Amino acid sequence: MDLATEVTPSEAGTILTVDLAAIVANWQTLRVVCGDAECAAVVKADAYGLGLGPVVKALYEAGCKTFFVAHAFEGRAARAIAPDAAIFVLNGMRPNTAPLYADFNLAPVLCSVPEIEDWGQYCAVTGRRTPEGGLLPAAFRLETGLNQLGLKPYDLEHGIHLSHLFDVTLVMTQLARAEHGEAIAKQIEKFEIMRMRLPKARASIANSGAIFLEANPLYDVVRPGYALYGGNPTPGRPNPMKPVVRLESQVIQVRILEPGERVGEDQGWAARGPRRISTISAGTADGIPQSLTKTKNGAGGAAIVQGKRCPYIGGVGMDLVAVDTSDSGYIERGDIVELIGPSITIDDFAAAAGVSGYEILTRLGQRCHRRYQKL
């Protein structure tokens, strides 16, 4: 059962609205920013939790022709929607999975010598070709400083020796976060040297944040992810992206507390005077981090109830969280609460919880009712 599509609004504790038109608009904005570089789309992790199928369909119909996923099964799902797109699988090629890549014309991003050898051997032994009759595609991921996945210079030389067996259409690397400017400069320098060993392959280095870095070469293909989904790729500056998600819940009970009464399983919040609290039908299983009520500065997060910011109190349970609605207008069971939306962006929500926006997006629970807007 796919809860995200089968649960109805009346059954759901939370409703996640995804604006597909905004995702397309964000991709179009990035395409303009990137100039001559092709603007691809990263749709791994179920399109950052928002639904790979609807997101790929919307972007493909808008003209996006290159997609990046993390796993082959995601690539297979994307291929069913985008029959002639280039689809790259970022996490490399697992043992004994080469036929899957060939069957669905997926390009493995080869990150190690064993992967290169496996792909080369498969291509040589089977003689498989693309639907157009060309060599099967692949990409090389170059290790330039993160030390997670990728080819060091000596690995690359071995890969080049076998690269006549398949078509290396792309060389790429992953950059450090934008705040590590000195590290990024060193990465770019290493990448520039290594990529010249495959001069016919297109090059890719820029993710969402790197697109907006000054003096960062965009090369041939850019790989935005977070920015597509409304996250700010320029921290500390106004967000150039349109908001994409809205997360709402309902009040399921309202009660008045006397001074000294406590809230939640951890009993960490006590009323300092008469307070009116509202319990809403959302919790960690819906993607609400426990840290929203336990931030270092004590500020915590807030929800929007009747147009007022109401702080989370008493800890976040699996299914429930309480907010202090004492300063709001009249509240009753069934009222809608904005958790993420026009007043609280993804970045605001993440900052209040002390986590990244990536984590928030991909945590949004499958038991939310997910609805899509196209206009």
From TrEMBL:
Residues 244-373 form the Alanine racemase C-terminal domain. The keyword Isomerase applies. The modification N6-(pyridoxal phosphate)lysine is found at residue 44. GO terms for molecular function: alanine racemase activity. Its cofactor is pyridoxal 5'-phosphate. CDD domains: PLPDE_III_AR. InterPro entries: Ala_racemase (IPR000821), Ala_racemase/Decarboxylase_C (IPR009006), Ala_racemase_C (IPR011079), Ala_racemase_N (IPR001608), Ala_racemase_pyridoxalP-BS (IPR020622), PLP-binding_barrel (IPR029066). It holds the Pfam family Ala_racemase_C. It comes from the Bacteria. It is an enzyme of class 5 (isomerase). Substrate binds at residue 318. Its EC number is 5.1.1.1. PROSITE patterns: ALANINE_RACEMASE. It catalyses: L-alanine = D-alanine. Belongs to the alanine racemase family. Catalyzes the interconversion of L-alanine and D-alanine. May also act on other amino acids. HAMAP family: Ala_racemase. This is Alanine racemase. It comes from Methylocapsa polymorpha. The gene is alr.
